[in-house]
Model the fold of this input.
Amino acid sequence: MPGAELGAFLLSPAWLALLGVCIGSFLNVVIHRLPLMLEQGWKRESAELLGLAADEAAAATPLLTLSRPRSRCPACAHAIAWHENIPVLSYLRLRGKCAACRTPISLRYPLIEVLTGVLFAAVGVRFGAQPLALLWCGFTAVLVAAAGIDWDTTLLPDDLTLPLLWAGLMAAALGWTVPLPQALWGAVAGYGSLWSVYWLFKLATGKEGMGYGDFKLLGALGAWLGATMVLPVLLAASVIGAMVGIVMKLNSGLREGRYVPFGPFLAGAGLAVMLAGPARVLGWMGWA
Done:
């Protein structure tokens, strides 16, 4: 098979879906471990800055990374073998339970894997069998991880949002996405719009309505999608977020004293706008 044909084959939606399922398995690790890694780092840094001895339990805890220590069952500490960690297939073979203690494994693990695979395939359909599709697959993977972490912890780590922002600006500068002025003003509009809403709400109520991570995430989306897409993303995220919040409140699913994190809806709206394409989105809004 000639090189061009092989490249097109490997970048087809089917192969991108397979890649997405594998990447989704890694994103499960990121979603679970990155908040714990950040918390561990904050504790160590705080102790050093205050000149305090590190807590004995914290000091004795091995340094957590995305690759170490090896994944284990949280119930029985069974080390997960490679054949128990094959995306989706291992979950089905084990019938959703730990191989050692039979404790149920969260359904979210295969769902994240399947979701990432479906999104990668959709990116393949949207951009065709070209290397640019891999760039947008990377964009998609970061958004899936950010959404999962924010939903669990109401935290949008700078480790994800800031690299995503700078990557969007660099991709635009290299001519791979939107024109650089559009990317630059998209980042400004994304960050500035939510920053303004945050301060207006705080001045009016004395409360904080969202976190700074939301500003950075929308700024990153603006850098990737352009200034004209910031408002559609914000409107879609707001409407869907409000609907989900109301349903959760009615079903008593909203965490006591907490709020529905906005990041997952920003990420979802950003992915929807990316897959739909600017021309179609502008047409829907009557701006074309």
Q: What stands out?
A: The chain is about 70% helix and 0% strand. The radius of gyration is 21 Å. The mean pLDDT is 88. Residues 17 and 117 are 4 Å apart (CA to CA).
